Amino acid sequence: MGMMAVFFLFIIIPSAIFHEYAHGWMANQLGDPTAKYAGRLTLNPIVHIDKWGTLIMPLLLLVITQGSFMFAYAKPVPYNPYNLKSQKWGPAAVAAAGPISNLFLAFVFGQLMRYVPGGPLSMLLSVVVYANVLLAVFNLLPIPPLDGSKLLYAVLPDSMWKVKQILEQYGFFILLAFIMVGFSWIHPIINVIYLFLTGGNGLF
Predict the structure, then answer these.
(1) Of the four listed, 61, 78, 168, 192, which is most buried by Cβ atoms within 10 Å?
(2) Residue 5 within any structural domain of the chain
(3) Does residue 120 have a cis bond before it (omega within 30 degrees)?
């Protein structure tokens, strides 16, 4: 278990929190103040911490996998889709805000990497970029409860409502199976985006 894995753990948690904040911010912009009234429209990490997803699971993964695979999520920000200005595209916009926020962070820190010589700081910036690209790509998978499922629902024709029904019913099991056997499928996508944002100077 190297220092890189420890860096990753401490970076992915605040990145997941920023992800959830972005959901609440977008919902508020589109007419739903639920997150604001619930005290979740803030970057204060304390209100976003989920005991399992933000603390226990990342630590367990760090120990069990020796840092080879880590993931974290924050407490989902509450929102009422019926308050959104657009009932069709509103939920999709709220869902997309999370991954977009992570790509934004990855872009900013990736640009900083271009002006920082190698060393500990460059390594830390590299971890920030990779962690946020990982969060963005993973959450865009069209599997409930990930954000990608909301984007899929927005473009699915009404005639395919059974697909939505099946995904909602078995989404957790599909996601679990994907994590166990299919996570390597998205590694090339993560790596391409990561290398693009860092100008090919990344450490991963």
Answers:
(1) 61
(2) no
(3) no
